[in-house]
């Protein structure tokens, strides 16, 4: 997977989006995107940054400068010829979603560490463990970043802990006295709870996908 085109095509396939859908987001003709994927052309620096942001990766990863998709190399001298602004990275703990314990954000539930830009250091990271939300482009192995300070609104994606039950990633909707939790994969069923039966951990604000090198 050594070229920008191959990396771009892989990112698109793993997230199950069409060339037309991605081209629409990037505001470019579909044929232009198709040419990029077969290395018949190269997007400009601003477009590469936009693509990287969409997929939760870095410009340097797309260009093959950095092997780790989440880390922009640090420690190089900043000159006028630099293509990208260097980003300070920090490590945050990744918590286990596949747990039934009531206390979730504890050291014993940490399964790894994840590099994020320093501006995201207060977010909480979880590793996606199933395909119940693949309609929202969350696949097993992906890392999701969760903001515990945002009050979720209808149709936002949240991480919730079911009382005496599992942790889930679901789209949330409210009725007068019930909370509806919906998967975005049709093979899973929606669930309905009273407010005292679940604990909302936070709102999913970013997805960093699992990409092999």
Quick structural gist:
With 213 residues, this protein is of the alpha+beta class.
Query: Which regions are unreliable across 5 or more consecutive residues at pLDDT < 50?
Result: 68-85
CATH fold annotation of the largest domain: Umud Fragment, subunit A
* CATH level 4 superfamily of the largest domain: Umud Fragment, subunit A
Which structural class is indicated by helix and strand composition? alpha+beta
User: If helices are DSSP runs of H or I spanning 4 or more residues, what is the number of helices?
Assistant: 5
Distance between the termini: 7 Å
Number of strands: 9
Strand content: 25-35%
- Secondary-structure element order, as H and E? HHHHHEEEEEEEEE
How many strands, what sense, and barrel or not for the largest sheet? 9 strands, mixed
CATH architecture annotation name of the largest domain: Ribbon
Assigned CATH class of the largest domain: Mainly Beta
Helix amount: 10-25%
What strand line-up does the widest sheet have? 2-1-3-4-9-5-6-7-8
Number of self-contained structural domains: 2
